[in-house]
Amino acid sequence: MAQQPPTIISLKHAFLTAQTLTLAQPLSPSRAWQKTNDAADNGLPEKAVADALVRLNHVLSQHCKRAYAPQATRHVAEQVDGLYWQALVRADQDEDEDGEGVDVGVDLADPQTISTLPPTFFPPQEDSEADPQSQTHQQYTTLLKHLTSLTTQITHHKARIARLSALKKMLSPFAADADDLSSTIQPNLVTRGGEMEGELERMRVLLARVG
């Protein structure tokens, strides 16, 4: 099964998570500062520097846990995704005021939506000099033909399912057990052990007595 492409939310969430992990890394003195401090006559004691770093890194860790919690990061990613789609909708409305083209977020699995798609695709900024042989146009035409073919197949399968469902409903009385067919369909059928067989046996005995 082909792997689904990542969504905008997942990409932004992964990026924000990576950045917050970078910000949450413990701090330590650089080699240049350490060398300068060691060479100075009144340099800071190593124990004092270590204690200060421990307290600073503790404060930094607590701040990152509160400010960059997974729920907050997810919320920011969702906000970015919402702004992204709003920008697309505004751009689509500005570039497609005549009502042609494909709206953002339409359901391309809906046969009615597919039937309303334009037969050709021309970028809005190149309407006057659109090349029918361009790669974009060819890709759009190929995808539209594929969608139209799938729509035809869906319509055919839905009609077939409807016919089979109607037949199943008509044949539902025959779905009983074989031993109960005589009582569920036609009790007067001559079947082994059925009511008609018993009546015929009693009639034969009666005729024998009368004779």
TrEMBL record:
Name of the protein in its database record: Kinetochore protein
Matches recorded under InterPro entries = Sim4_Fta4 (IPR025207)
Q: Where is this region: Disordered?
A: 119-138
State the organism named in the record. Answer: Echria macrotheca
Signal peptide, first to last residue: none
Which cellular component appears as one GO term in the record? Mis6-Sim4 complex
